[in-house]
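User: Hey, quick favor. My workstation is busy. Could you predict this chain's structure for me?
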Amino acid sequence: METKYLWYASYGSNLSRDRFMCYIVGGKPKNSSKIEKGCADKTEPKDDRPHRIKHALYFARTSKKWNNGGSCILSVKHDENKTTFGRKFLITVEQFLDIVSQNNGVENTQINFEEVIDKGSKSINKSLSGNILYLGDEDGYPIFTFTSHFDETEFRRPDILYLATIGSGVKETFKMTTEEVTNYFMDLDGVKQNYTKKDLLKQLSEKI
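Assistant: No problem, here it is.
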């Protein structure tokens, strides 16, 4: 790409700026036992903004990081009837490559961004989040995220601490109430099959 910068669109635990910054500067995110090494370039994002992603969000597979509950996964399919609450950070291309590497547990990630833009998505490794997804452009910069290689059909209950971490980021980004965050979660596969609204609201109210 001609630009040095791009938007990274987060939709899970990285909605929290403090948590996301651990992937930039290094450190241990809240509620995590893992110390992230950060990017080679530790410069703060040039900008960050709320971002409504027109792809479904759901929970599937197993996340060892979150007590073996379901992982937060963004559907690879664009759907105008679905809205995932995200947050995009304007960072360098090199920072994005480092962040993809950290989140996938790999080294020296390389991405052909022009091919991703042309095809809409491209798998770069076999990790759960090894599929780079193109979400359009804003202010002259392309928007990318990473997700699963294909949509899962078997959903899994997410750990409540994981939901609280994501929910804190949603509240921070969109200035929502805990009840509004609960309503958002109750529409998501993996959550709606395994929680009641009353129970989820109670637990989230104690944690976020």
